[in-house]
Amino acid sequence: MFFKMLKKDLKCKKGLNVILFIFITVASVLVFAGSVEIFSYLTGEKRMAEMCNTCSLEMMVPAKTAASDEKIRQIESILDGYKDVEKYHSCDMTKIDMLRIDFPRIEEDETNSFFKWRAYFMKLPREFDLLYDTNDEPFYLKSGTIACPVDFSTSIGLRVGDKVKFTTSMGDVYELEVACFFKESGFPGRRRIIVADEDYDILTKDEVIKIKDYGLYMKDCNSVKMDELHNTLKAEDMICPMYMKYDNTDDDVIMQAIVSVFVVIISVFLIAIIFMTIRFTMIADLKSEEKEIGMMKALGVDSFSFRWLFAAKYIAFAIIGGAIGIAAGIPLSGYVVNLFNANVILPQRYETVIIGIVAVLAIIAMMIGFSLMVMRRINKISVIDSIHGENRGERFGKGFPLFLHKRKKMSVPFFLAITDILGRFKRYIFLIIAYTLGAAIILLCYNVRNSIISKEYMKLFLCHTIDFDVRIRGEFREELDKRSEAEGKNYDVLLNEMFKENGFPAYIDTLNYSWGTLLDSKGNKKENFDVLWGDGEIEKLRYRDGGKMPQLENEAAMSYFTAKKLGMKLGDVIDMSIHEESEDGINSEDVKRQLVITAFFDYSEAGNPAIIMGKDYRKGEKIYSKNWIGYVIDAPESQKAGIVKQMKQCFGDDTIRTWQESLKQDMLAEYDRLFALLEYVLGGAVIFVLILITYLYSTVFVTEETPEIALLKSSGFTDGAIKKWHLLRMAVLVVFSVVLAEVLFRTLGQLLMTKFMASYEMTGVNFLLEIPVSFIIIPLIILGVVLLTVSVTLKGIRNIGIWKISEE
């Protein structure tokens, strides 16, 4: 009986069944891959630590220090005696110039961001930061081969088997074959190129910058402890750069988190659509079979098994779609995870299978349970329905109080559309929900990209203005180096002079950089801060409402994330230990100061909160490069594009870039790639789902309204007028849904963005609405897609005649 009911249902409603099956199958695949993606994100750090034996702190001993055995013994003696260092390992690395490696299919160009990375030759690690290939397997190299980071394949199209040529500093050329790619487990700020053990000494014998790399395993590693160790070594005249691992503000981690959030959003959307579709189609089925159900209940057939028969199709679709989802999800899940973060080591295969199957089975169980729940509607069908059908008086109930004779300027199709929606609003609730969620997701996808790849977003990195960008490369760098050495001036000063000499109203705005430590009431170190001060235009930075720009020497503004974490309020007085120049201007020392917090500012802290000192403050140490906080063109907005074009002609396209080129090709290039992928893939997926849901609902509407359509045609209405009624009804529903989506996006979407960014120590990220796209183009795309789909389903109206209501 089960299979007879299933066969009958599949034959009668082929189009609707295909759509429902596609929904369930796609949802199963996505839930499988999405659950693995989320599990990989949540457990990736721990899995990487266990498999790769990653250290918590990396210390790179400079070449000059590393060349001295006595210095190395001194460093290791300090590490042995440092209470927070549990153990450490070391290995040798040699820094190389990427431009001396000849890669196939790409021209070695110093203006290409790929060749700006620090690169090191090293042997295969055996003690810490171990490496695995793209199949998450250990690998070994034979002489004449190398292994490269996996992003070499995505960045420059390098392939296994390619031959690369390395030219030593003495001019010797060695040809090396790419044996495999590996997932980077070390510090992301540099690239390791692995060579065979027997080749390492030969390839690096003429190189000068040979570094000793230490992997430290520390108790509760944090910036304060790293600073203490750094200062201990510095006191012994050994300055060694240090980098903390497991930084949750790393770009790869953030991008994978973004993907996980969108996976959850689209999964919830699809599941909601499926449940709405099941409910809608089941109610339509029950309505069409109302007489038969009433008759069977009159005969005494009313059992749980009987209800299962009406759920036969949904049960079968859930099981078959779930099985396809599991089969497709196993290979697809790994691809999805590595697509957005190639350096993640995937969960074990058994973990992938178990997690995916559990997720899919949960969805199947929910679908079956929901189908049976909808079956409760059978309880409302009585024996009277088998006798009278729908003619029990409810069709003559009070309708919506809108009368055509009182709306002389309203066309009949529009009147029918409005009264239909208002009079039977419950009928369209789920369709409105589907359109609202779909439009909100599309708005979210677009506006995330639009808001992040923007000038406003750069203010969170303390760049108050970016009207242009300048790249210091090649001959231009050589020219600046010569002038800097001859005149004793920094790059920013020289650039401003060059802009002025050539008649451009452009300048680089800067702040000096030092460091400081927040102290508690007992004078103990509490939190490390970057300290910014100087003549920069700090009034142009973005302060939170209620604060005012710090002016006096004892005033300061604090980055908001850490200030909120510490419970700081405007007007609070804090004790800071700031690194300052001594009175002789030669030495430096830590000076304790009391500062009044006059403002908070939004900032991407990335583990490094910041303090902006008042404009009167001038005592900080100037040992680091200045922070460039503005690329300003002092001209009306309408003239800036033309000035940038003239600057390009003067200094070259490789030196001067527009702010769009700077963000999309350099500063935020990885984010732009990810957001573009999400925008087109998820946006396209949502549009596809809306097409299917529109086709399904519109088809059911035409079927249910066949008597009304036949009656209208017999009364003289043309097919065009009837189609206009249906199109206008869907247009009104779409417009109403888009308005709800705009409200949902501006409220819940903004809350989601704020909470998500706050988890990565960033506050003040707001959506920047591009009015034409958000309020015109996207709504028109959704409206056009829906109306086009409805037009396709209305072709069958021409075959409907008065005989369709002969039973009435």
UniProtKB/TrEMBL annotation:
<feature type="domain" description="ABC3 transporter permease C-terminal">
    <location>
        <begin position="681"/>
        <end position="800"/>
    </location>
</feature>
<dbReference type="Pfam" id="PF02687">
    <property type="entry name" value="FtsX"/>
</dbReference>
<feature type="transmembrane region" description="Helical">
    <location>
        <begin position="773"/>
        <end position="794"/>
    </location>
</feature>
<keyword id="KW-1133">Transmembrane helix</keyword>
<dbReference type="InterPro" id="IPR003838">
    <property type="entry name" value="ABC3_permease_C"/>
</dbReference>
<keyword id="KW-0472">Membrane</keyword>
<feature type="transmembrane region" description="Helical">
    <location>
        <begin position="353"/>
        <end position="374"/>
    </location>
</feature>
<feature type="domain" description="ABC3 transporter permease C-terminal">
    <location>
        <begin position="265"/>
        <end position="379"/>
    </location>
</feature>
<dbReference type="InterPro" id="IPR038766">
    <property type="entry name" value="Membrane_comp_ABC_pdt"/>
</dbReference>
<feature type="transmembrane region" description="Helical">
    <location>
        <begin position="253"/>
        <end position="278"/>
    </location>
</feature>
<keyword id="KW-1003">Cell membrane</keyword>
<dbReference type="GO" id="GO:0005886">
    <property type="term" value="C:plasma membrane"/>
</dbReference>
<keyword id="KW-0812">Transmembrane</keyword>
<protein>
    <submittedName>
        <fullName>FtsX-like permease family protein</fullName>
    </submittedName>
</protein>
<feature type="transmembrane region" description="Helical">
    <location>
        <begin position="428"/>
        <end position="449"/>
    </location>
</feature>
<feature type="transmembrane region" description="Helical">
    <location>
        <begin position="731"/>
        <end position="753"/>
    </location>
</feature>
<feature type="transmembrane region" description="Helical">
    <location>
        <begin position="674"/>
        <end position="697"/>
    </location>
</feature>
<feature type="transmembrane region" description="Helical">
    <location>
        <begin position="314"/>
        <end position="333"/>
    </location>
</feature>
